[in-house]
Amino acid sequence: MVRLPCLVVMFAATVFVGQSAAQDSQPFAIAGDVRMSGRYFFASTQQVDLADLLTQAGLSAEAGNAVVFRGQPLSVVSTSNVRRDALHRQTPLTAGDVVVFRRFEGGPVGDGTAVIADGGIPVVVSLPGGSLPLSEVLTSLDIRVGGPVSVIHTEWGRQVEESLDADDLVQHGDVLDLTAIAREQPLRAAATLAEVPQVTLFGEENTLQIPDAMSATENATSAPTVLPTPDSSDLSAPSKTTLAPERLSTQANPAQTTAALTIPRQQQAPSLFVPSDQYEVDNNAPIAGATSDATANDGEFVSSGQMDLSVAEANTLPEKTETQASTEVSHSDDSSDTNNSLFRTASLQRFPADRTSPSTQTPQTATSGEASTPSNAAMNGIFVIGLMMAVVLIVAGWIRTQQEQAMADSNSSDSDFADDEQTVTARQAVGLDAAVDNQLTHHELNAGEIAEILATTEPLVRSESHRTVRETSRTVEAEADQHAANGDALEDLIQNRLPLELKQTQLPLQIALFGRPAGPRRLRIDAAHTQIAAPKMDTVARRSRQQKHATVVESANNPSAGQSSTSAERSTAADVSRFDRALNFLEEQSEK
Amino acid sequence: MITAIDFGCYAIRAAYRSPATSSQITLYSERAEYAMLPNQDSFREALSDRRIAHAECDDSIVVFGNRAGLVRWLSRRPCAPLFTDGGVPTKDAPARQILSVLTKALLPAVPPPGSLCCLTVPGGRERGSSAEFLSRIVTMLGFEPLVVSSAESVLLAAGAQTSFTGVAVVLGAETSEVSVCRHGVELAARTIAVGTNWIDTELAKQFRIQVWDEQGECYLDLESVRRWKHDQRIHLRNGVGERDKSLSRLYGSMLNQVATTVRDLLQAPQVKARIGNERLNVICAGGATQVGGFTSALTERFVDHDVAGDILSVRMVSDPSNAVVRGLLIHGELEQRRREPLKGAA
What are B82-111's pLDDT values in tens digits? Predict the structure, then answer.
């Protein structure tokens, strides 16, 4: 019972720490024909380029096409042709970007991957078999959608936006934009789709030495460090199970067990779906050579391709209970799509604090409370220390937030009524239009009424301007502090380091101008005719038509005469068309 | 002090760096339009009470800049542009005076002697009369004017990653500019007489988006079209409504011209001689690029016009509206550094 509040506080602290860490990093998602699809977190101070992300993810082909998605809803902002031997830093990315790489030839690398964007950090999920019905994908995310879902289908060289129904297949390289749906129905934690691991890449060295990094990725001997990045969205992330066709289950066996995995397709590149919040990878762990048989309970491990797993329960740790006992996993990974036969090794270890789906978390907590007989004092000590650390972190975060808020308020009070002109004008227009709809009639308004209407709409504009100014001032502070030391003004300008501070223009209150303003252009519409005149029949044309009929009749008796008359008409028509062409030519010339 | 002013047909933006606040750029922005109100005391008093800057003309009251949209409902007329047909108006004397007033308000009051002011001209560099008029205004305010192409400025602002080499496309309100540069040197450029105002006008005409004033005069409601266009759900590739599809067609027509121009420029002899077979990045800026699906649509046009083989990537700048004025500041800084050794030698 003592541990329950401790657990709650630690959970809150973890959320808090996760949010702060997520704020200090830049998330990116990459999918498609790369070796390691997933989410990548770079340091916030790092200027991340498309080449960096592709280097870390590992290109699976010599050449391809990388598409960068950005914004809410996602839209394509960049399409680049990428060659492995000529990978340059030319396309800078911003946090939250989604990259889909498609190679020129060949099918998907390993199981297919798709990206799901819900307005937050995008999620890269695996599609066993290369495609899955949309209904299964949404069901695994616990989303019920009545209508079609917007999906950007990527192929090499083009992107097609489609609206998929429930029975349609989500294919490899697709980007599902659930922004609008997630606003009304946020993604729930009970999702069961296999998520591709996320990788944290802090440090500047990740962006340098592209050729070396590429070769390192190609050799696959130094896989990037997979760290459990604390993230608020990860707390509600789907438990790492897979969907029906290749769903595996493991059983918690006290003794060492071996796993024999079903290999669906030999040609696919291996992929291991590791829940990043549960496992950490130790690159220095020895290679597990033993071929393992299938274990897997509750679908915690999903594997396809040539991969060996050996699962051993780590009961040696004295402080862990039976259900919290960490499970050490070592696997060897055969890069089958390349000619080399190097093996990728890693050792996986489950974290003591298991943050899987709530359905599995609750019974584990209950069981741990009952089964903690041998080392109760040690466990309580650990929880108390954790509790104290959590409290300290929460207090520190609260103080920092208050300070930021106070500074932003002081800055916003100084700059009055200055903000982004688009926001202001849009809001002004909207606010005033609403006021007009409510209060304006066709009679002339006196000064008091007009001032009243303006006064009612002014606070709306002012509040928006304050918000924008506050955001601007925050940006100014952050970037100015970071680059104040840099003296070179030109370099700052070129690198776009200097923030823009939007100020209100001081216009003269009342001036006199000479002349009459032209004003807006009127739309020229012919006035309605009060009396409709009688139709002016073209008597000449009627006569010619009669003549034509006559010639036709005549031609029945004399074919040669008919031919001559029709040729004459044709020449007249040709003259008319020639005249049109001349007029068009003259118009074109006058335009030039 | 380096000062830059971007005379756009949608907005006029001025930026400068003062020695006191060298860690940031001070930006001023005003809409390039004015609203006409009947010359009535009630309107005049209301504007004075609310401290809204206005001007009195022969038979009307004029409110210009950002506040024009605030008061246009009083006359039920849409705002009139300061730059008619992409240039300084010749038959609208108040508009020319308003341009002078706005420029004076946007630029620093007391510039140091010899201060450089880089400016762009609506309608591109082909508008010699506009450039002369605006340069004179800047000169009267104590600055030394330097007219710069907006496309070149965009490449300076956003081309650091590509060594200032590539194709810059700036889609403005009245005109669009395309420029091919190599290491910051412009090799070829062209101005296209099509911008977003043409799209807005065609949409308003086709769907009869109109407003009427108190006298029953009819006007196209371009502001309403703009507001609809700024909706984030609008996408060029997945339009569902008839208006969305018309917008895609109009954009397609404009991007066709852009792609054709890029193809022609890349085939120019001076470009071929310098660039060779190097594939170039395309950098897009301007308000029209902010619509969803823009880069995809432009990429498609490049494919249609067989230019895709010469293009490495198509990307938008991070701040499409202010990229030009940033580039102008960079250009001014470079120009000042170039002149300093000459002054020292003299």
Answer: 998 888 999 899 999 999 999 999 998 888
For residues A190 and B128, give the distance between their C-alpha atoms in angstroms, rounded to a whole number. Answer: 66
Cα-based distances in Å from A13 to A363, A400, B205? 21, 15, 58
Three-state DSSP class for residue B216:
coil
Residue B335, CA distances (Å) to A520, B26, B145, B170 in order = 39, 20, 12, 22
* Positive/negative CA dihedral, A83, A86, A87, A88: negative
Q: Measured between CA atoms, how close is B308 to chain A, in angstroms? A: 10
Strands laid side by side in the B280-285 sheet: A198-201, A38-43, A25-32, A98-103, A63-70, A75-83, B311-316, B280-285, B166-171, B176-182, B185-192
CA distance A313 to A253: 7
Q: Do B217 and A499 touch (CB under 8 A)?
A: no
Q: Is B113 helix (H, G, I), strand (E, B) or coil?
A: coil
B57 to chain A nearest CA, in Å? Answer: 5
What's the confidence (pLDDT) of residue A327? 34
- Substitution target in B315, B317, B328 with the highest count of A β-carbons within 10 Å is B315
Give the H or E element holding residue B255. Answer: helix B242-266
Chain A positions touching B219 (Cβ under 8 A) are: 520-523
The angle formed by the CA atoms of residues B328, B167 and A210, to the nearest 5 degrees, is: 100
Q: Which of A507, A525, A526 to mutate to test the interface with B (most CBs of B within 10 A)?
A: A507
- Judge: B30–A505 Cβ closer than 8 Å, yes or no: yes
Nearest to B183 by CA among B107, B114, B275, B119: B275
C-alpha pair distances (Å), B202 with each of A226, A376, A461, A531, B205: 54, 77, 31, 32, 5
Question: How do A307-314 and A257-259 pair as beta strands?
Answer: antiparallel
pLDDT confidence bin for B120, thresholds 50/70/90: very high
Closest CA of chain A from B104, distance in Å: 9
Model pLDDT for residues A226-276, shown as the tens digit of each residue:
333 333 333 333 333 333 333 333 333 333 333 333 333 333 333 333 333
E strands in B89-137: 116-120
Distance between A244 CA and the closest CA of chain B, angstroms: 32
A471 — contact with chain B (CB < 8 Å)? no
A·B CB contacts under 8 A: 259
A92 bridge partner residues:
A49
Q: Which residues of A touch B74 (CB under 8 A)?
A: 445, 450
Question: Are the CB atoms for A133 and A165 separated by under 8 Å?
Answer: no
Query: Is A150 within 8 Å of chain B by CB?
Result: yes
3-state DSSP percent of chain A in helix, strand and coil, to 5: 40, 20, 40
User: What is the full DSSP assignment across B258-301?
Assistant: HHHHHHHHHTSHHHHHHHTT--EEEEEESGGGGSBTHHHHHHHH
Of B94, B102, B218, the CB nearest to A517: B94
> What is the sign, positive or negative, of the torsion defined by CA atoms of B214, B219, B223, B224?
positive
Of residues B15, B74, B161, nearest to A92 (C-beta): B161
Cβ contact, residue pair A503, B98, below 8 Å: no
Residue among A85, A273, A76 nearest B315 (CA): A76
Chain A residues in contact with B293 by the CB 8 A cut-off are 75-76, 161
Enumerate residues 6+ apart whose C-beta is below 8 A from A106. A33, A61
Alpha helical stretches, state H, A415-532: 421-439, 447-483, 489-494
ipTM: 0.85
Contact A257, A295 (CB under 8 A): yes
